[in-house]
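Write out the 3D structure for:
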Amino acid sequence: MMHLSSKNPCWQSFRLLLFICVSCLFLTGADSGTGNSRSQFVKLDSEIQAIKEEILDINRDILLLEEMSLYPHGQQLVVLVSVAPNSLLGPDSISLQLDGQMVSEHRYSSSEQAAMQEGGVHRLYTGRVGEGKHQFQVSVTGGQGGGDAFSQQRRVTITKQVGRKYLELHLRPGDDPAKPVLSIREW
């Protein structure tokens, strides 16, 4: 995903380049009234497009490098949240602790709940975790179709190996309708 903002150096460079090219176009157009101005415009437009593509490629590479430096592939932990499709369960909030430290907390809007009930997945956390054993604790509060509230907590020990690790927090109806089941799946 590309992020262009006014503070992004690539975006600023592109805007400056575009300003220079447009200025040259007006100066060239004012200088000659012949048919060459159209061909010059086409040539200049194709050059601008090529430069724009190069800047977008550079921006993509910068974003990938930034992600790799923040979350090296060998130390990355990704935690996803899902709800059993077509269930009436809806998480209101989820908090996540890793080795006793709060690393993520999210409150879900009604549209996010609806998306998850239809099979959507939410990325709750992405971070660096070293190799070895780690204590992982999750707390979920939410509601069910009948308006009944629920609260679940799970604590597990995970073993992080070299490489990216995915954990999925999956919420589904239980045998007892008043107590949904929160399972933690490792990928």
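The domain at 73-186 is CATH 2.60.40 (Immunoglobulin-like).
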